[in-house]
Amino acid sequence: NVYHCPFCNICRVGQGLGIDYFHCMKCNCCVGIKSVSHKCLEKGLEMNCPICCDDLFTSSATVRALACGHYMHSSCFQAYTCSHYTCPICSKSLGDMAVYFGMLDALLAAEQLPEEYRDRSQGNKYAE
User: Is the pLDDT reported for residue 66 higher than 70?
Assistant: First the structure.
């Protein structure tokens, strides 16, 4: 299905405003109703995807909002996160890294250190 958003002044894929999308006046974009708690970044979609450099605002491809408020195509996000874990624009983490860093700590703790370093520890910085 396709609907016309009078605020974007563009046709979008979906059921329509008030059905499965609403228009965020601050972001100036149509956002899925399930994403009511999205982080607004003024005119955040009026830029190019930081990965493929295609326009995000007029794109018919699915666009993903990052926790920091920046956007990129969902397919670009999938490819990018295979080797990166920070936003390509602001370098903020794309997710909660505490579990990942905890796993790294456990792997390092299992390693055999030289005798002079075995009794040294900084403790677990990620524990709550």
Answer: yes
